[in-house]
Amino acid sequence: xxxxxxxxxxxxxxxxxxxxxxxxxxxxxxxxxxxxxxxxxxxxxxxxxxxxxxxxxxxxxxxxxxxxxxxxxxxxxxxxxxxxxxxxxxxxxxxxxxxxxxxxxxxxxxxxxxxxxxxxxxxxxxxxxxxxxxxxxxxxxxxxxxxxxxxxxxxxxxxxxxxxxxxxxxxxxxxxxxxxxxxxxxxxxxxxxxxxxxxxxxxxxxxxxxx
Length: 211
Known about the structure:
CATH architecture of the largest domain: Sandwich
Low-confidence stretches: 8-14, 16-20
Mean pLDDT: 91
């Protein structure tokens, strides 16, 4: 009987042990070949503790621009240790009157954590229903992957937030820039947006588009 029980216990114990991973991490080698899965891995012998630390979010970004806001990314292109881990982050600084216009992240959901100030935020579902909130210090809001969303300053002081993402490269497409910061012909934009030509030309001029 003992000869039967021991192999069974051994098999059970081995099944409870964690499976060995082929690699604990894959720090990005930006100079190597890439694939849909991400960057190639830096040789482990060349990896150091510094690869796992990023200090780029410590300082405020410049809000002296058209939207009075700054987004400082800690994506895989800036923080190479994120490669393959399915996470990333960014810092938002939004001055009074500032806004991060309607945009999407095609490859990731976003979790926004307000650090200072007040932020008016919201997203629009695929059924065109808006979900909006006024966020104070310490509040958290989630923006599902691929949905249009925005953040705007809701007070008289600069608002600061940290955004985390469910991908090392979440992607970004700002609606206004997609329409007016390129060479799409004005008549075509009229057809797809129902805007008047003078308004389209005004927006193209502001955002650097042509056509």
